[in-house]
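Quick start: read one record
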Amino acid sequence: MAGKKSEELLTHFNCEKCRKWWSIGDAPRDRESWYCPWCGHYQEVEEEGKGREGERAEGREGE
């Protein structure tokens, strides 16, 4: 008998209000708004490294 394995896409989120993070396995990629499970804040989320207008936010860590 052989062991089994599976893979999933794990997405990490960070709340803009309470700053806590959470993860969801196989989260829908087209969903843009989520509730924080810690504080209940409803927020739009964006892919890390992109600004709200979709521009790259590289080199702006100090702002």
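The mean pLDDT is 85.
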